[in-house]
Amino acid sequence: MITYDLSCKEGHRFEGWFQNREDFDRQLGEGLIHCPLCDSTEIKKLLSAVAVHTDKGSQPAAPARGADSRKVESYFRALGDFVEKNFEDVGERFAEEARKIHSGQSEARSIRGETTPDEEEALTEEGIGFLKMALPKYDG
After folding, report:
1. In the chain, where are the structural domains located?
2. pTM of this prediction?
């Protein structure tokens, strides 16, 4: 089973569950996916967070340790370090602070924090840009 964050031409955001990518593509092509708010069939897939589900008790396979794997890990470490050092952590107040910055009530600055799906949707509808990303935590 795969879950996609979707949006219609009116900007309504919703979630769709599909057997696999091919099932999504088929349903989209046949006009079977409808916005639950306006019934539009003009649907696009949004960027989504990634989740990996495993059987209970299973252990993840050890990642490949080739040169490409080390480059990817190095990139994400550097990106995480940059964000941590250069973005103010506002925690659960992210949506509130983003609105203040957008409206000019607070000084413009780079912030990071947490939002709920409802807050993300509201910020998007208000035209307040943000980038949602998850950075892995590394030991040491």
Report:
1. 2-45, 67-125
2. 0.51
